[in-house]
Specification:
Blueprint: E1 2-7, H1 14-28, E2 32-37, H2 44-49, E3 52-56, H3 68-81, E4 85-89, H4 91-104, E5 109-113, H5 122-131, E6 135-140, H6 143-151, E7 159-161, E8 190-195, H7 204-217, E9 223-226, E10 240-242, H8 251-255, E11 258-263, H9 272-279, E12 284-287, E13 302-305, H10 308-320, H11 322-339, H12 342-363
Parallel strand pairs: 1-2, 1-4, 2-3, 4-5, 5-6, 6-7, 8-9, 8-11, 9-10, 11-12, 12-13
């Protein structure tokens, strides 16, 4: 089977790393993967090492409408690569690929819907509805995403929920059993960690406020921010360490140096940070938005908060009570490992691909 995955760019980000995990797994199964990106292929080498053929158009990754020049090129690429299934990501990329597929009569297009950015306005919704006939299935990465798609006019029977997963071979606790982190005995260097791009959607301003409030109370504590972006200006503090962008392979080690993880997203669908932290046995304090409540069991594996003060209080509660932190970590590891295993999620996705490919064979 040949799978073509399409997205706006290959810059470091959650969607890109989810796709990278998928390609690695499919490559082990002998499946052929092509990645088509509209913009910069910054992670090209990593994707190629994972077994993907990368095609970059080196254009504007966020065209606000169907771009005829893009569509002409994509038509030729689809005809040349002859994939069995096309799986597109990010709305502005979706439009170009779907327009090309429609023009040449390619009928096996899937849209992996990871969330809804600032670009989702009335015009976006209208274009999405107009092009929905080209799509066989929308994969929503959470029930919240499915609900939003239906609200935007996508037929419910076209939407299937398949959560993102975490690679349990990579994100493993530092001990054979579920790791029991304890700041007092030096196992953790940081009270609080954050991982993600420091952009508007991740709430860096709220992140900075919560960390500063926490550090003003815990005067010997430190915080670790794994990532970079324009939002780092909100995080200037002598006890907040910022790594900048790091290879995804370094994230498990860095997360394992943290006692708790904080997530301040304004909106999020199925953030990898929660899955990765949970697999490592690290409790999460997260903003109660989007699909996050589907990943965090409030009061069991972490805390869901609506206000900054609640976040600070939750971090204090976890970091001042060793047994509570251990219990939350153990339950988080069990919950994530039994419900968000990458292998299980990819089997479900592959079954969908196979159904479409078999229909294509029958049609041919």
């Amino acid at each position: 089977m040949k799978i073509m995955s399409c997205l706006h760019s290959l810059e470091p980000g959650g969607i890109q790393y989810c796709l990278l995990d998928q390609i690695r797994a499919f490559n082990r199964l002998g499946l052929s993967s092509t990645v088509l990106c509209l913009g910069r292929p910054e992670l090209r080498e990593i994707f190629e090492l994972a077994g993907a053929r990368v095609i970059s158009l080196d254009g504007n990754p966020f065209p606000k409408a169907v771009n005829r020049e893009f569509v002409d090129v994509i038509c030729r690429i689809i005809e040349r690569e002859a994939p069995n299934v096309i799986d597109t990501n990010i709305v502005f990329c979706d439009w170009q690929v779907r327009a090309a597929a429609q023009r040449i009569g390619f009928k096996h297009v899937i849209v992996s819907q990871h969330g809804f950015g600032d670009g989702w306005d009335a015009k976006t919704c209208e274009i999405e509805r107009q092009q929905s006939d080209v799509v066989k299935t929308y994969i929503a990465v959470s029930r919240w995403v499915k609900t939003k798609l239906i609200e935007y006019g996508i037929p419910e029977d076209k939407v299937k929920v398949i959560y993102n997963g975490v690679d349990l071979n990579i994100f493993t606790p530092t001990k054979p059993d579920t790791v029991h982190k304890d700041i007092s005995n030096g196992l953790c260097k940081y009270d609080v960690g954050f991982v993600g791009r420091l952009e508007y959607s991740k709430g860096p301003e709220m992140l900075g406020k919560v960390l500063r409030q926490y550090l003003s109370i815990k005067r010997h504590a430190r915080a670790l921010v794994i990532g970079d972006g324009n939002g780092r200006k909100y995080l200037a503090h002598p006890r907040i360490d910022i790594t900048g962008f790091v290879p995804h392979s370094s994230v498990p080690m860095l997360l394992n140096s943290c006692s708790t993880i904080l997530l301040t997203s304004r909106s999020d669908s199925c953030p990898a940070a929660i899955l990765e932290a949970g697999a490592l046995g690290i409790p999460v304090v997260a903003h109660h938005v989007g699909g996050i409540p589907e990943l965090v069991q409030h009061g069991k594996t972490g805390f869901l908060c609506s206000q900054e003060a609640q976040m600070v209080e939750s971090l204090l509660q976890l970091n001042e009570d060793t047994q509570l932190r251990r219990d939350f970590g153990s339950r988080a590891a069990y919950w994530i490992r039994h419900n968000f295993d990458l292998c299980k999620q990819l089997k479900e996705r592959l079954m969908l691909y196979n159904r479409l490919a078999s229909k294509q064979s029958v049609a041919n």
